Amino acid sequence: MNNSFIKLNLPIDIYADGPELEEIKNFDNNIIKGYTFNPTLFRKLEIIDYLSFCKKLVNVCGKQPISLEVIADEKEEIIRQGKILSELGTSVFVKVPITYTSGLYTLEAIESLMQSGVKLNITAIFTMEQVKEILPILKNTNSIISLFAGRIFDIGKDAVNVVGEISKFVHNDSNCKVLWASPRMVYDVHNAINAKCDIITMQSDLIKKLSLLNKTSEEYSLDTVKMFYNDAKKSGYSF
User: Fold this and answer.
1) Within a 10 A sphere around the Cβ of 136, how many other Cβ atoms?
2) 43/51 Cα distance (integer angstroms)
3) What is the mean pLDDT of each run of 10 residues along the chain (239 residues)?
4) For residue 156, with 0-12 CB atoms within 10 Å meaning exposed, 13-18 middle and 19 or more buried, which class applies?
5) CA R_g for the chain
6) Structural contact between residues 36 and 67, judged by C-beta atoms closer than 8 angstroms
């Protein structure tokens, strides 16, 4: 996927979320500033050996930041896995869920990894209360705070307002970066900017649509008309 034709000047970094290895090799580094992965995305890619694929990703992504997630649900195992992932390269941010599956916070695991010098991306965050739990620990680090804005929209809340308030709180009292996760449309780039986020993750299907930000409504309307007509012709439909 070559996106070199896209001319964008956005005040936010775009991270590719769960791309395939070949896609990573073809991304324009002027547009894609980092990468994020999680177990669900690995399963989508039909990965069998989790750690082996993590090593391949770190090698392919080079110096660009890459977030790789632990797959544990217990403190000591999160710490063990987090250290292993961190040792794969200086570009690695270890993703740790905000809570265990029990709903209890992963604070002790987060603090232990932070004290060991592991760079962190705290994921699956939805609320200000969750951020207030972890920020005292992470405020002096360059950790990433991943807010699942798309899923906040899914439950009927205004993610721009929710994320915007959290972003202001984080930026006023820490060195951490705020990430807009799980976008549903290209316009979420603007939503993330309006919410004062530092990063937005986008899967490949949305990255392919970034060039549309340069189109006029009239141009895209005409493209749509042509698509309908050409598809009808290719299908051999007639009356």
Assistant:
1) 12
2) 13
3) 57 97 93 97 96 98 97 98 98 98 98 98 98 98 98 98 98 97 96 98 95 93 97 95
4) exposed
5) 19
6) yes
Residue 7's pLDDT is: 59
Domain boundaries, the chain: 13-212
Q: What is the Cα 187 distance to its own chain's centre? A: 15
The answer for residues whose C-beta is within 8 angstroms of residue 83's C-beta and 6 or more apart is 113, 116, 118
Whole-number Å distance between alpha carbons of 72 and 94? 12
Classify domain 13-212 at the CATH topology level: TIM Barrel (3.20.20)
Are β-strands 120-125 and 92-97 bridged in parallel, bridged antiparallel, or unpaired? parallel
In sequence order, the 6+-apart residues with CB closer than 8 A to the CB of 161 are none
Burial class (CB in 10 A: 0-12, 13-18, 19+), 155: exposed
Degrees to nearest 5, angle at CA 106 with 172 and 196:
25
Contact 3, 33 (CB under 8 A): no
Residues 116 and 149: their CA atoms lie apart, in Å, by 30
pLDDT of the residue at 108: 98
